[in-house]
Amino acid sequence: MTTVQYPDLVQLFPASTNQIPDQFRVEPIHQREYLLDGEMKQWSGKIAEVYSPVCIPDTDGTLQRQLVGSYPVFGPEQAMEALDAAVRAYDNGRGEWPQMGVAGRIACMETFIGKMLEQRGLVINLIMWEIGKNLADATKEFDRTVSYIYDTLDALKNMDRNSSRFRIEEGIIGQIRRSPLGVILSMGPFNYPLNETYTTLIPAILMGNTILFKTPKHGSLLHYPLLEAFRTSFPKGVVNSLYGRGAIVVPPVMQSGKVNVLTLIGSSKVADELQRHHPKLNRLRSIMSLDAKNAAIILPDADLDVAVSECLLGSLSFNGQRCTAIKIIWAHRSIVDAFLAKFSPAVNKLKPGMPWADGAKITPLPEPTKTQYMTDIIADAVSGGALVVNEGGGETVGSIFKPAVVYPVKEGMRLYREEQFGPAVPVVVYDDVEEFIEYLITDDHGMQASIFGTDTTKIADLIDPLVNLVSRVNINAQCQRGPDTFPFTGRKDSAEGTLSVEDALRSFSIRSAVATKDTAENKAIFNEIVGEHKSEFLSTKFIF
């Protein structure tokens, strides 16, 4: 780790384990089992050690990341075993889970929620220790995930109720419901390792699919306490865990052609490569949230207090490590100095500290190479004529990086186009809004944008082109995902498919119909099947 450069920063780290509050300590968890085909299998092979971004100085003062535990590292053979278990459980749509009615699946998920809640404290602590998320946000991530599952259950009930009746059109009687797609490869991100993973995993399971669940490199261990809940809540083979380096274990799984849906929250480059491995792309559905370079524009008439407050939250919540973070700010020349005069001190007021520290907003970065990357990308801007305008911005010790406001950022600097995914806030000065629109046109990303202003005509003039360039335009508000009932997607390289509570259920399923001609004989057949409950699909059961 980096040796001490800034004493005020090094003092943020505990001098010893005794300085860590008892309720936030986690004894190293060495995972030696994994979920496969409904059983917790023992593991005796290669392992990966998990080190926290929380550091403690050793005897010579060098900061050392603390060991959180370890987990299995699969090879291609174990990856294929996990895939085969999911394939068997689905059984071409004839398995217990895809054949189960919606009410049965909901009951299983409700059982899972109860068991998930039993692990709440441990999972929250592991979120803090593995990725450095502060206590408030780690707690919010867990609780929001539970709320998301409940909301998804309600949406599924409504969806099923609307499908419980028959339609008669043009002499045809039919019933239309949603059916599963098959085997899902689910790959979650490190920045929201629980919530973002479950926003795809949960609806995929509920719609009757079987799952191959690849844990993220950072934030893998926190899923271990929940494996038993999966095992005991769902039929065997519905959920199967997959560990190891994605470059090793995922290609053979994709090359098999047995994956029906790839869901990934991560990099567009990784997504492109994984999709190319599949032998029949027309059979592969992809549901992904990928890169983003969300931009905010501050108009000359903007309320600067609102702009500063929202840009502060939008750019630096969880150290800027969010796909929905504001990654670049465009400020009009007439107000850029006034904006920076308010924004820079506000950035410096963000409290740095360990994840459990009361009020800590800037916490250690989980990726071991991230502080160097941030240093390099800021140095590149400075070499091109930009300045770090907030005092102490860019200072780093160990895994702590003080947020840096960089201005003026221009085309040719890495910060102008590259998604930094960390605590650096590039500010661009503009004279004409067409410059901002042209930036979005030429950008590879298209997730969200924010407009700050008070003139309704100017705001409206921006809304209309922006909604055709990004998927969500925020007015006097930061970019964000919520509420979960709103569609969450992106254009260009930022996403494929749409996620939200109801959209996700639709994304992981397909409309299927059973139909017959409107004759007395066919009506009698339908009536007997429905009346004697011979089919789960062809049914008028109503879920309350």
Describe the structure.
This protein has 544 residues and is an alpha/beta fold. α11 packs across α12 (336-348). The chain contains 18 helices and 25 strands. The protein has a seven-stranded mixed beta sheet with strand order 15-18-19-14-13-21-22, sandwiched between helices. A six-stranded mixed beta sheet has the order 10-9-8-11-12-24, with helices on both faces. The protein has a three-stranded mixed beta sheet with strand order 1-5-4, with helices on one face. The chain folds into two domains: 7-289, Aldehyde Dehydrogenase, Chain A, domain 1 (3-Layer(aba) Sandwich), CATH 3.40.605; 294-491, 3-Layer(aba) Sandwich (Aldehyde Dehydrogenase, Chain A, domain 2), CATH 3.40.309.10. β16 (396-397) and β17 form a beta hairpin. The N and C termini lie far apart (57 Å).
